[in-house]
Amino acid sequence: MEFTSYTFSLIFTILVIGGLIAYAIWSWRKRKHTSPVSEKLELSRHEQNPILSPQAHKEWEIAGTFNPAAMLDDEGRTHVLYRAIGTDGVSRLGYASSEDGANFDTRSDYPVFSMKNPRMTTIPTVTVVKKYDPVIYPSGGSWGGCEDPRMVKIGDKIYVTFNAFDGWDHVRIAVISISEKKFKKGHWDWSQPFMISPTGEVNKNWVLFPEKIDGKFAILHSISPEVQIDYASYLEEFASGKRNIKSRFGQKTPRETWDTWVRGAGPPPIKTDKGWLVLYHAMDKKDPHIGYKLGALLLDLTNPKKVIARAPAPILTPEEWYENDWKAGVVYACGAVVKGGVLSVYYGGGDKHTCMAQTELAPLLDWLIQYGKV
User: Fold this and answer.
1) What is the pTM of this model?
2) Distance CA 202, CA 147 (A)
3) Residue of 51 and 249 predicted with greater confidence
4) Contact by Cβ (8 Å): 247, 203
5) φ and ψ at 19, to 5 degrees?
6) Which CATH class is domain 41-371?
7) Beta strands 144-154 and 90-98: pairing type?
8) pLDDT by residue (tens digit) across 348-367?
């Protein structure tokens, strides 16, 4: 067979077309079978992290300033309540505020709320003197007090939920409130704390929705094995014992995703046009050296018990020195605000520092909807 220039041109054309077709098929198969986990969206840490750290001249917070609640007021100022641990091993709440959310020009010289004996608010008991042990510590570095606050503004009041810890036989969810006017003026005239979780149970990570739903307070008290929400006309219904929240915690089936052990909600839910954004804490059995990573859920606006998207990968993983300073491998978010379309997440690093990480809200929601199928 004699090969002419025409024959060579024809063969070359066929090979090129065949190559283009093969590449198109390969690209389509790759896009189709690529795991969503390969598509990542991670928060960007603020360059000034940690934005709050223990101050040596304050004995009440010298051991830790972390796990901050956060709120944005109508003037655009960010307020945080952070968990502080003193030399006596007691957890108290400190306060700071900032115009830009990162540089805090106001910070309390003294605790703005203290609760040394949580069980004394509900049942009489004999006071037991405990000795703080910085090595064998029972809960995040302290042996008692108020831990891990979450804060929401509903109407003209600010509500704070926190863990009232007085030993592992008394870990309950407490609520305090204050008028927004007093809060912004620094008049720390809090209501008497009361418990909304039942006795005899260990409960953490309960948060309030930032608005009433169908005229009632909504309490998100578990996200695993499913989203669990209770509603009440008055939160005192639970404190009086007339009602109990029956909260379940566990995993439905073994999970093969990055969040093999879902722990609980982080900051209070954030209302968006795509759904309720809930950030949550989870662990991965494939990374046993890492304590907590941060994930995201999107809940239906009309039926918030329905999960419509779940992050295919963590949006924040403990990697920096300040996230491994005291307790290694911990990012623990308790507060988040949205300002100018930017989501700012306030979290505790290493059970010692207060840190902040950010992302634009719209791309985060789009990412969740596109890759976070449930």
Assistant:
1) 0.86
2) 13
3) 51
4) yes
5) -65, -40
6) mainly beta
7) parallel
8) 999 999 999 999 999 999 99
CB 336 within 8 A of CB 345: yes
Is the CB of residue 160 less than 8 Å from the CB of residue 151?
A: yes
* 292 in Cβ contact with 281 (< 8 Å): yes
Query: What b/e sequence results for 275-295 when a residue is b if at least 16 CB atoms lie within 10 Å of its CB, and e otherwise?
Result: bbbbbbbbbbeeeeebbbbbb
Q: What is the pLDDT of residues 103-118, one digit of tens each?
A: 999 999 999 999 866 6
Residue with tokens 């918030």: 304
Q: How do residues 191-243 score in pLDDT, each as one tens digit?
A: 999 999 998 888 999 999 999 999 999 999 999 999 999 999 999 998 877 78
Burial group, residue 354, by CB count within 10 angstroms (0-12, 13-18, 19+): buried
Q: How far apart are CA 299 and CA 374, in angstroms?
A: 11
Taking residue 29's Cβ as centre, other Cβ atoms within 10 Å add up to 10
pLDDT of residue 30: 36
Question: How far is the first Cα of the chain from the last one, in angstroms, to the nearest whole number?
Answer: 61
Q: Where are the domains positioned within the chain? A: 41-371
Alpha-carbon distance of 193 to 176, in angstroms, equals 5
For residues 338 and 239, give the distance between their C-alpha atoms in angstroms, rounded to a whole number. 32
- The span from the CA of 67 to the CA of 30, in Å, is 41
The 3-class SS string of the chain reads CCCCHHHHHHHHHHHHHHHHHHHHHHHHHHHHHCCHHHCCCCCEECCCCCCECCCCCCHHHCCEEEEEEEEECCCCCEEEEEEEECCCCEEEEEEEEECCCCCEEEECCCCCECCCCHHHHCCCCCCCCCCCCCCCCCECCECEEEEEEEEEEECCEEEEEEEEECCCCCEEEEEEEEEHHHHHHCCCCCCCCEECCCCCCECCCCEECCCCECCEEEEEEECCCCCEEEEECCCHHHHCCCCCCCCCCCCCCCCCCCCCEEEEECCCCEEECCEEEEEEEEECCCCCCCCEEEEEEEECCCCCCCEEEECCCCCECCCCHHHCCCCCCEEEEEEEEEECCEEEEEEEECCCEEEEEEEEHHHHHHHHHHHCCC
Cβ neighbours around 10 below 10 Å, total: 11
